[in-house]
């Protein structure tokens, strides 16, 4: 019997344990269960092989201590306006105060004190003016860039701290299910190498991240955990030369733009901009390959990449937004023979596929070397594709050259956080003793807001459950 069982060692789970240890005056028995490996053993073979080898049973980039976000770009968004809908639940001012508090913890464990995106010169006014003229909203958001390689050391420091404080950690261990007695959660069922094992706890926190969103959605359906279909993001990762993005990289580092292009006026946004970064492949369950972007502190490329995501909100009777996005990804993977597809923007407008020989002589060379040149429009839903094309035209008014014929589009870029678990301001679900946090809960998007939700959970355990 544990005081607390945390499933998922991403930011939400980590900071739940951290805050509980920081604020409590007595010791607690805490079990942290993680499907992947400890942070020091998370290594992607692609660094040596040059191609994705589809690691089994889990992808080192998407699973393991610190979660997927820390091993991608490692950015902390320092504004409540970015990172999901948690501020709608707890209030904007409180959310910002928690961000400021959580940021200090990151600094304690070795985050770079330098903050990007706080430039206040005349160039920012010019960018904002052009964004307004293009019908786009420019979101101000300071960024603390951990860097993919630096984040590994920071989270290793946190992992060691938790272990030294007595937190028990089970790695390469999968949670199969939760254990209920009536409408009360009593523990979890784990799948280990030796078989299944039931573990009991006073409180259970599920914080499985985007990788576990599909699993949590099935759990909600099976155990009648109150939830509703939320938003699912489907899009592409765009890559262009640093020269094109030079000004916005300098004054904003990550320019967050939001628009509602004609004719459907769906929300379309930029996300996860990586100046001098690298496009990367991540593998999810059922061999689903999706694209992401990495940004290192020291290692730089000639290109900048960023995501363009189209938000899809479904209504009755449809209630499987994650499955919908997965089908889009599977169809794209089929066309690319299991690899990420890449296509030039000009070829999309011309109605033709892209050929490898065309990429070899272009100004923009793909940083994802094993991406397959092809036709992403053969798999991307019409509505999403039109939204992306029109949004790129709008961004081109802010960043001239963004809509160059040589600009590269990689697919699929999918964000699995569509299942929104219903909860109150104390982070209580309709199942007593069960709490759902982070990106898998549908309330957060990204490292910082997931960490903030963990901090809040740690405090609520102390306030409401006599920890």
Automatic annotation (TrEMBL):
InterPro entries: FAD-binding_protein (IPR028348), FAD-dep_OxRdtase (IPR006076), FAD-depend_C (IPR049516), FAD/NAD-bd_sf (IPR036188). Coiled coil: none annotated. Pfam families: DAO (PF01266), FAD-depend_C (PF21688). Residues 3-210 form the FAD dependent oxidoreductase domain. It comes from the Bacteria. Transmembrane segments: none annotated. Residues 265-413 form the FAD-dependent protein C-terminal domain. PANTHER family: DEHYDROGENASE-RELATED. This is FAD-dependent oxidoreductase. The lineage of its organism: Bacteria, Bacillati, Bacillota, Clostridia, Eubacteriales.
């Amino acid at each position: 019997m544990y005081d607390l069982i945390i499933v998922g060692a991403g930011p939400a789970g980590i900071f739940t344990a951290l805050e509980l240890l920081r604020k409590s005056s007595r010791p607690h028995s805490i079990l942290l269960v993680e499907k992947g490996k400890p942070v020091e053993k998370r290594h992607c073979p692609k660094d040596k092989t040059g191609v994705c080898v589809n690691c089994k049973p889990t992808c080192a980039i998407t699973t393991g201590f610190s979660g997927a976000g820390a091993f991608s770009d490692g950015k902390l968004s320092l504004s409540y306006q970015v990172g999901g809908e948690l501020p709608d639940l707890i209030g904007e001012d409180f959310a910002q105060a928690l961000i400021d508090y959580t940021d200090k913890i990151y600094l304690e464990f070795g985050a770079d004190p330098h903050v990007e995106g706080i430039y206040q010169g005349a160039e920012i006014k010019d960018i904002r003016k052009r964004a307004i003229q293009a019908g786009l909203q420019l979101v101000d958001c300071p960024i603390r860039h951990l860097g993919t390689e630096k984040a590994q050391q920071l989270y290793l420091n946190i992992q060691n701290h938790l272990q030294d404080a007595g937190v028990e950690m089970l790695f390469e261990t999968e949670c199969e299910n939760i254990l209920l007695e009536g409408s009360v959660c009593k523990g979890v069922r784990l799948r280990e190498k030796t078989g299944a094992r039931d573990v009991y706890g006073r409180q259970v926190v599920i914080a499985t991240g985007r990788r576990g969103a599909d699993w949590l959605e099935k759990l909600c359906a099976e155990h009648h955990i109150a939830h509703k279909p939320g938003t699912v993001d489907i899009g592409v990762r765009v890559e262009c030369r640093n020269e094109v993005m030079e000004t916005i990289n300098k004054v904003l580092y990550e320019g967050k733009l939001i628009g509602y292009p004609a004719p459907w006026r769906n929300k379309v946004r930029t996300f996860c901009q990586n100046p001098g970064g690298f496009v990367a492949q991540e593998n999810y369950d059922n061999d689903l390959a999706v694209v992401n972007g990495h940004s290192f502190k020291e290692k730089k490329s000639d290109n900048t990449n960023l995501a363009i995501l189209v938000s899809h909100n479904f209504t009755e009777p449809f209630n499987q937004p994650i499955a919908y996005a997965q089908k889009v990804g599977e169809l794209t993977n089929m066309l690319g023979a299991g690899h990420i597809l890449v296509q030039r923007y000009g070829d999309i407008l011309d109605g033709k596929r892209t050929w490898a020989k065309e990429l070899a002589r272009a100004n923009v060379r793909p940083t994802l070397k094993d991406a397959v040149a092809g036709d992403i429009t053969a798999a991307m839903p019409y509505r999403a594709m039109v939204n992306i094309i029109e949004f790129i035209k709008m961004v081109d008014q802010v960043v001239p050259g963004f809509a160059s014929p040589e600009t590269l589009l990689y697919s699929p870029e999918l964000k699995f956080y569509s299942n929104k678990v219903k909860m109150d301001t104390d982070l209580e679900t309709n199942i007593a003793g069960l709490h759902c946090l982070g990106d898998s809960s549908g309330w957060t998007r990204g490292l910082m807001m997931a960490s903030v939700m963990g901090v809040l959970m740690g405090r609520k355990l102390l306030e409401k459950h006599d920890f």
